[in-house]
Amino acid sequence: MSLTLRPLHQHFAAEASGLDLTRPLAPAEIAAVVAAMDQHAVLVWRGQPMEQEQQVAMAKQFGPLNPGLKKIGGRVERMRDMALIDISNVDPDGMPLPRDNPKIVSGLANQLWHSDSSFQAPAVSYSMLSAVKLPSWGGETEYVDLRAAWDALPERLKRKVRGLEAEHFALHSRITLLGDDGYTPDQLAVLPAVVWPLHRIHPGSGREVLFCGIHCRRILGMGVAEGKMLLLDLLEHATQPQFRHSHQWQPGDLVMWDNRATLHRGRAYDLDEPRELRRTTNDEVLEAARAVA
Ligand code: OGA
Ligand code: MN
Questions:
Q1: How far apart are CA 34 and CA 116, in angstroms?
Q2: Which of 26, 69, 85, 121 could be bridged to 194 by S-S, CB 3.0 to 4.6 A?
Q3: 154 to each of 146, 149, 238, 262, how far by Cα in Å?
Q4: Quick one: which atom of ligand 1 is closest to the CA of 129?
């Protein structure tokens, strides 16, 4: 079997088939998936249900796994492996959690456009989300291509954005929803903000990227209000419908995306219905390191 790709959008995203992700991949198959990710940035795999252990083993073939926001604490863990991130609204018995549970707040924050873990350095590369149980309506995940967004930026804005840096903070999305008082000083200090240029090169494709999203808290060297307004304008530009692909989940789907070239967000659904997905996120492994590994 070999990897087959069917483009899903004018700019990015493809449906991938021909490989069984629950078995170890041969080096040539891994290289083919990486090349497909470099080009398409989002790969949709249908009919690949997996056990938690299989998902961890599969994802580890693409680099070390990143625990996401687990350091912040305050959650009951449902996953059997620390590397699996529980993207669900349910308790350990599979029952929907009450609205004021921190996990529900995190799930709502995932409905704001973001790049996973852009608030950390070194960077992360891929996220892989596997669907287990889905609600009767809503709950799609939408993606945008930040390379296409950069290319379409008016020349005046390109000139302005080149050389600008933004501060990304882990709890900014949550604070956007909750206000400042949702977290203790200790929690606020666990993951210090990091700085990324707003204009970056996507390592896989060599293309230019408009690296924005809800984790951006401010622009360095710019007044707070002016910086926030520019961040909002850039995000509005990047998330226009022509740059968007919406994934309608079925159980057993696995979607991989490159956080260095895309933003994503979940869509609303009925929080009284269970929705269960599981995510892994890879630390970035640069090509030189990958060749040695
Ligand atoms: C994620 C995420 C959105 C969704 O898993 O990183 O943002 O639709 N998920 O659940
Ligand atoms: Mn996410």
A1: 18
A2: 121
A3: 14, 10, 12, 19
A4: 5
Q: How confident is the model at residue 228 (pLDDT cuts 50, 70, 90)?
A: very high
Q: Name the residue of 84, 141, 259 whose CB sits within 8 Å of the most ligand 1 atoms, as the mutation to test its pocket.
A: 141
Instruction: Return the residue matching tokens 């799609």.
Output: 140
pLDDT tens, 159-176? 999 999 999 999 999 888
CB 259 within 8 A of CB 38: no
Structural contact between residues 56 and 84, judged by C-beta atoms closer than 8 angstroms: yes
| Span from the CA of 223 to the centroid of ligand 1 (angstroms) | 31
Tokens, residue 12: 């990015």
110 CA: nearest ligand 1 atom: 7
Task: Give residue 293's pLDDT.
Answer: 53
Question: Phi, psi at residue 225, to the nearest 5°?
Answer: -65, -45
Q: Which tokens is 67 given?
A: 């625990």
Which structural domains are found in the chain, ordered by start?
4-291 (3.60.130.10)
Smallest CA-to-CA distance from 97 within 78, 114, 79, 116 is with: 78
Whole-model pTM over 0.90 = yes
Annotate 47-87 with DSSP letters as a single string: S----HHHHHHHHHTTS-B--GGGGG--S----SSTT-EEE
Give me the helices (H) in 98-193, please. 102-109, 146-151, 155-161, 172-178, 185-190
> What distance in Å separates the CA atoms of residue 268 and residue 289, rounded to the nearest whole number?
39
- Enter the tokens of residue 129: 């989300």
* pLDDT reported for residue 71: 61
